[in-house]
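Record type: monomer structure entry
Structure origin: computed from sequence
Chain ID: A
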Amino acid sequence: MAATALTIIGSVTGVVLAPPALADDFGTDISGTWRVFSNGEWARTNDVLIDEKSVLETWTVSTTCVSPIECYGEVTSSLGWTGSARLDDFWYVEHEVPNWMPCPNGTFATGHQKFILWGVNRANEQRVNQDISTFAGRNVTKSNSGACGVNQPKVIELPVLMERIA
């Protein structure tokens, strides 16, 4: 009887201490290659439409998900920058843009670019959170307050469409 009890305890202990399987990406991992289009035709600064150049780039994304709501990773753009990616209700991709805003004195201020992305079903335009092949979102770049001697940050926002290509 004592040997049987020890065997059962040993078996239960082995099950409890076994590491969880990590084979599932929870349907939220966005690793792959993406076509990203920021539409300058609808660009805004301080909520006013402005004429801005549209940007087409290709992203190589490498992310890891530890739960259906917690993912992180790295994005490399065909435009030469690398940034961080994280999932927190929306996907956020962020990086610094050196020499983004010219100042009157001949220097330049750094921009902080953030893409805010959410999955969409193109057939019905509903938001989706798993197995996403198309994202809509915003491309927001802003300077620090006080940059170039101006007490307010410059903010430029463009709508974004992101589609999986591989």
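Annotation 1: The radius of gyration is 22 Å.
Annotation 2: The helical segments are 2-17.
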